[in-house]
Amino acid sequence: MKKLIALFMLSGILMFPVTTKAQDADAQDTAAVETTEVVEAAPTEPAIVDDEVMAEEQGFHQIIKEKFIEGDPTYMSPVLICLILGLAVALERIVTLNLSTTNTKKLLSKVEAALEQGGIEAAKDVTKNTKGPVASIFTQGLMRYTEGIEMVEKSIIAYGSVEMGRLEKGLVWISLFISLAPMLGFMGTVIGMIGAFDAIEAAGDISPSLVAGGIKIALLTTVAGLIVAIILQLFYNYLVSKIDSLVNDMEDASISLVDILVKHKLSK
Fold first, then answer.
1. DSSP state letters, 109-171
2. DSSP string over 246-260
3. Of 60, 149, 181, 243, which is the most buried if we count CB atoms within 10 A?
4. Cα(219)–Cα(193) distance, rounded to whole angstroms?
5. Residues 85 and 158 in one domain
6. Which of 78-92, 140-154, 218-232 has the lowest mean pLDDT?
7. Helix 51-58 with 60-70: angle, nearest 10 deg
8. How far apart, in whole angstroms, are the C-alpha atoms of residue 153 and residue 145?
9. pTM for the full model?
């Protein structure tokens, strides 16, 4: 019985939109007939077109496509390539840095408990089984424990520089695309302006429509380059702040590890 009721409800839901659409279609046909009659009655009145409605119907994607074509794909394509490559590097860095984030307090507590229960080897096992640059630095420091605390500190500092270089990997490419995109846009603008002046010279007369059209097309490449640079700059600043946060955690955790090792050595 419940299945039968559900089937009837589903049929009603499916039939309601169809009925509504049919009513809407009838209403649209009636309105079209009335509009036709009005137009036939007063053929001298000009038709009014709402530009805002037409712009909304185009959609953002269509507008971008049209502007890309107007700006000449020959000069807009390099700017688009800069955006694609820059976003690819930025997204890869974001994923890598988020995976490199480690709960340093939890790791330090595990290392301290392992030192108390199983010694240096147990602490090494904990750090080796933990992912992230902080755990790698801890492993290098623990490997030098038998050579003294000073060697532990030197090892942590040296390997910390290596891990910092790995975290900053790829930022130079994003910085390159940030600088390159506006340059390519300006180059397209200059070339477009040269083409516009060549057209003026060939025509032998300065036509406002000719000059305005050429300048408009030329400036689109500059706008595209600036937009790409702004987008990539936001990602670049986020990555720099993320790296700074990770480096600060590495430094604080390294100092805490040295303190734990000194305490462990004195307790023997």
1. HHHHHHHHHH-HHHHHHHHHTS-SHHHHHHHHHHHTGGG-HHHHHHHHHHHHHHHHHHHTTTH
2. HHHHHHHHHHHHHHH
3. 181
4. 9
5. no
6. 140-154
7. 90
8. 10
9. 0.68
Residue with tokens 């036939």: 40
CB count, 10 Å around CB of 118?
Answer: 13
Full domain range(s) for residue 232: 78-97+171-256
Q: Are 123 and 260 in contact (CB under 8 A)?
A: no
Instruction: Give me the residue label for tokens 């839901």.
Output: 13
Structure tokens at 68: 């890309």
What's the structural domain count of the chain? Answer: 2
Tokens of 267: 């307790």
Does any domain span residue 3? Answer: no
pLDDT score recorded for residue 213: 65
Close Cβ partners of 218 (under 8 Å, ≥ 6 residues apart) = 188, 189, 190, 191, 192, 193, 195, 196
| Amino acid in the structure at residue 107 | L
